[in-house]
Write a structure and sequence with these properties.
Elements lengths: L2 H5 L20 H71 L8 H14 L3 E8 L4 E5 L13 H9 L1 E3 L11 E9 L5 E9 L1 H8 L8 E5 L31 E8 L2 E9 L6 E7 H4 L1 H40 L3 H47 L7 H28 L7 E3 L1 H10 L2 H6 L3 E6 L6 E3 L1 H18 L5 E9 L3 E8 L6 H4 L19 H11 L3 E7 L3 E9 L2 H6 L1
Parallel strand pairs: 11-13
Antiparallel strand pairs: 1-2, 1-5, 3-4, 4-5, 6-9, 7-8, 8-9, 10-12, 13-14, 14-16, 15-16
Amino acid sequence: MSLKGLLRPEFWKADKKSAGPYKSLFDYQRIWRLCFVILVVVSLVPLFILAFIDFNVTRVAINSENMLRGARTTSNTRRAVAYFLEERKSALQLIVQLDDFRSFQRKERLAEMLKALKNSFGGFIDLGIIDENGKQLAYVGPYNLEGKDYKGQAWFKQATDQGTYISDVFLGFRDSPHLVIAVKHYTDNDHYKIYRATLDTTQFNGILSSLDLSEGADAFLVNNAGIMQTPSKWNGDVFSKISFSLPEKSFRTKVEEIQIKKDLSAIVGYAYIEGTPFILMVVKPEAELMGAWQGSRDTLTWISTISVAVILLVMWAVASYMVERMYMADMTRSKLLQQMEHHNRMASIGRLAAGVAHEINNPLAIINEKAGLLKDLFTFNKAYEVDARVLGLVDSVIASVERCGRITKRLLGFSRQDDVELRPVYPKKIVETVLSFLNKEAEYRSINVSVDVEIGIYEIVTDRGKLEQVLLNLISNAFQAMKDGGALQVKVARADNNRINFSVKDDGCGIPATDLKRIFEPFYSTKKQTGGTGLGLSITYGLVQDLGGLMVVESELGMGTEFRFSLPVNPIAKGES
């Protein structure tokens, strides 16, 4: 095939209507589309699946690595902060255990202890002793706090109840950020004192500022109310409130992806520091962490786009070549196959019907003869002269034989269908003849059959056998679609252009909209589970076309179906015109 043939192959010009009821099988544009879609799906779906898997696996791996790094940084920083506070609390407890603090009312001794704490650990501002009534007995530091009463304050109650207390960062009357550590010590079995030390936040903040973080990352402490306890790069200064909700409480290090702002999501490592009001948070913007991966993703997207375009072009050419070869082969045999299928099946049906009729007629003739002989014997025999019941039984047998004879004659007439043989027929008689085959079923199933033939319609020129077969197929399908007690309407009316309209309408289950487009295709059936072959409507459609007619169908699921076809009154005159 040439390049032009690949872009615009010959089968695009094929007329699918010429295939009659099989037109969907010869819709080469549809076949080409299906081939193209299947080839593209088979080619691209594995590519997309692999790309999707690689995309997600890589993203999950990078995200897991970022989570692990965040957890490691958070855990190490939590240990450093906890160690800083624990170290100073232990130092305060140590000096309480080693000295007799009954003499601490002397400021000189208390000042020596404060100096030792400053030299050893740094960060201590003042030191005080409070009795069990909340009164500060002794104090050394830059402020005049001796004699101050702390009894009603929350920290004093917590220190008294729990034995230790670490405050969050606050200003107080000092008007500078600081925090308090307090421990409880019993001087005897009944009495105790609270030893309270104040620390500045310089060393405290230095722990977080010394972390080796990326430019966009941030580490800070907040309290249980979400108030900043240390400075932050982008979340505000000390004592400002964070812009997102606190995560669930956990003394173990956890890492979560949190929406910090409307257009900013970040990976946040956090840990509640046990025994303190502090929550450590290490925040790393997701865009910064995933930057390298996004660059690789963009490169992979461009490569995949070019690959998909090349695959589409190749699949276009392959599908065009395949369907073009199919088109050339089908054109040589399509019409022949249609004719052979129809004639072979109709010949088989005709031979079967004729054979059955003849085989039934022979025993019927014998039964009729013997029944007549019995009637004569009973009639002239005085013993049965007054037995009306016996004579009635014999008459019933003779009447049944005559009825069977009429049925076999109609069956023989119905089976004689070869070529189209146009003769004048009466539409009303054709309808009555076809319904006579189904009267018993209609009576048994309580189906109400109504026939409406417009006044003034007498003869039309058509093939009697083919018209009978069309009506029989349509009415049989209607019976199968209806439940017991249904209603069937058969109408014959005049139409424009010297034509007659036939209509078969039922109130059965209806046909789904998805099936309406294909019901005239050969071997397509909605009743395959109950033995349908998919040939009835296909053959009926072909017979209507042979008679010069057109057929349409309307159906609504659950409401019923109506088949309509129109035939010319005089097809010979129509052909000559």
